[in-house]
Amino acid sequence: MTTPLLHMQAITKDFPGVRALDNVSFEIYPGEIHGLCGENGAGKSTLIKILGGVYPVGTYEGQLCINGNEQRFQSVRDAERAGIAVIHQELALIPEMTVAENIYLGKEPCQLGTIDRHRLYHEAGELLSQFGLTIPLHKPVHELGIGQQQLVEIAKALGRSLQAHIENRRSLQANIDTSSNALLLVLDEPTAALTESEVDILRHILSQLREKGVACIYITHKLKEIFQIADRVTVLRDGKAVATQSIKSPECTEEVLISQMVGRELTALFPERRTTATDENESNQQNIALRVENLSTYPSEPPQLRDISFEVRCGEILGIAGLMGAGRTELISTIFGAYEGRWSGEIIIDGIPVQIRAPREAIQYGMALVSEDRKRYGLLLEADVTGNMTLASLNLSSDITSHGIINENIAFEKSKHYVDSLQIKTTSLEVPVNHLSGGNQQKVVLGKWLMTHPKVLFLDEPTRGIDVGAKAEIHILMAKLAQEGVAIVFVSSELPEILGMSDRVMVLHEGKVTGEFINNNLTQEDILRCAAGT
To answer: What is the reported pTM?
Structure first.
């Protein structure tokens, strides 16, 4: 029988008061793509951090073997030397450095003690070309969209893992067992920020690597991707491995995986709700919460919004679809006062034209924005749950603050109300939010904005990077808020989510509206045609 490339045996890992992994065994074979599924907090990231040397030997129980040889990683560098490359969910890029500089960060080619920049850019270009990636090498990373940043991170890891593979084969002087000639790529939520075309590029890259015998652990909440690309899948729940099965097995279905992940059956990913959308002739003008007329932006470079007009009614969910770079995030950021460039047009709230120059003014007018990047724009990661939950309400609620002083007791009670109602899993309201899982962090962001009692709620990719159970809970919350009369403007790159949650859909292409639909027998093909500008 073929020896596994990787065998993790009886792995147990404890944190103070929490058992993150409980006797987990996991194996993967050369050339295999192995899916790893589970809810946020199931133990996936902890398992991968042990494999990648983040948690060194001695901090966990169990054994880690590569091609039958036990490995005792003391650091990330030890794991890299063994041919293991991990792309964590949190990107590890230097925003001010260029694409090429990030790809070879810490492994820059040198000549006579200085970095050989000509060789650096040449080799970075060859690496990107090898995998069909067209990303400007000299561009600072902070000028890229989050999707392109994800591809840079993937290219960086591929470059490191391939180099480690070469070093393993040619070198006996490295102070680590190199007899295995391992090459294992670990992708943690690699497509969370990618468009469909970028996902296709990634699939092509993984197919190329599979043909070369490279193994891949593929972690994702998008179960459709597991069935498209993986050979086998392992499900973790509450720190335990509950199932490993072949994707080709007739018993392995999306419904079965969901049940194994959450420990219960989810009857539907999207709640049933009656659409509130009507034809324009039937529109109740008094029911319009937000109207935008002829909105255009004037940035130094695309995407540039051009003459966008739309309206959203109380109790309605308006979905905004489009490819990455279409201007979806720029649109809602501009309305919310968070756009840094110049813009023109008119914003009308409850029939009254308003001037919004900053987010604090948008909040005063009853708007709320759950941003695309919750860690960068939605949370203070080192602050506790209460501090984050009350952040947007400090200038709105006189009972929370008086004369600039926060009433800690009231802040605690209000935060506890939303922690309980949103079922946020935390041991205490004093826990820093960076200790929470991704799904629970997203619920904290939602709770922060719900505490402001918004009339208009903007949601930019609200379920990105969270598990299927938390995703279903957020969908139910959206439907409940709409039923209570909140107007929701909802951006998502997942077309099933747009179709499952929206009353109406507006499609953008290169900053222009190319289609508007009532969600009645609407198809993905209808949306994609408009998103492509055809």
So the answer is: 0.67
Q: What angle do CA 289, 325, 310 make, to 5 degrees?
A: 20
**Closest by Cα among 49, 60, 43 to 236:** 43
CB atoms within 10 A of CB 122: 14
Q: Compute the distance between CA of residue 381 and CA of residue 90 in angstroms, rounded to an integer.
A: 13
Tally Cβ neighbours within 10 Å of residue 288: 18
Burial of 300 (0-12, 13-18, 19+ CB in 10 A): exposed
Looking at the chain, the whole-number percentage of residues with pLDDT higher than 70 is 90
CA distance readout (Å), 58 to 84, 258, 409: 19, 34, 42
> What was the pLDDT predicted at 310?
97
> What are the pLDDT digits (tens) for 249-287?
999 998 888 888 877 665 667 887 655 555 544 445 659
Q: For 126-130, 165-169, 227-231, which range has the lowest pLDDT when averaged over its residues?
A: 165-169
pLDDT tens-digit readout, 82-121:
888 888 777 789 999 999 999 888 888 888 889 999 999 9
- Angle ∠(332,337,339) on CA atoms, nearest 5: 75
Q: What are phi and psi of 27, to 5 degrees?
A: -145, 155
Cβ–Cβ < 8 Å for 252, 233: yes
Which region holds residue 189: left if phi is over 0, alpha if psi is between -120 and 50, else beta? Answer: left
Q: What is the mean pLDDT of the chain?
A: 85
In whole angstroms, how far apart are CA 158 and each of 231, 283, 461? 21, 53, 27
For residue 175, name the pLDDT band (cuts at 50, 70, 90).
very low
Secondary structure letter of residue 375 according to DSSP: I
Tell me which CATH code domain 6-262 carries.
3.40.50.300
What gap in Å lies between CA 253 and CA 243, rounded to an integer? 13
Q: d(Cα 517, Cα 27) in Å, to the nearest integer? A: 47
Specify the amino acid at residue 102: N
Provide the strand spans (E) within 171-214.
184-188
Confidence of residue 174 (pLDDT cuts 50, 70, 90): very low
Per domain, the residue ranges of the chain are 6-262, 376-444
The Cα–Cα gap between 406 and 390 comes to: 10
Type of residue numbered 443: K
Residue 188's closest CA among 142, 157, 212, 145? Answer: 157
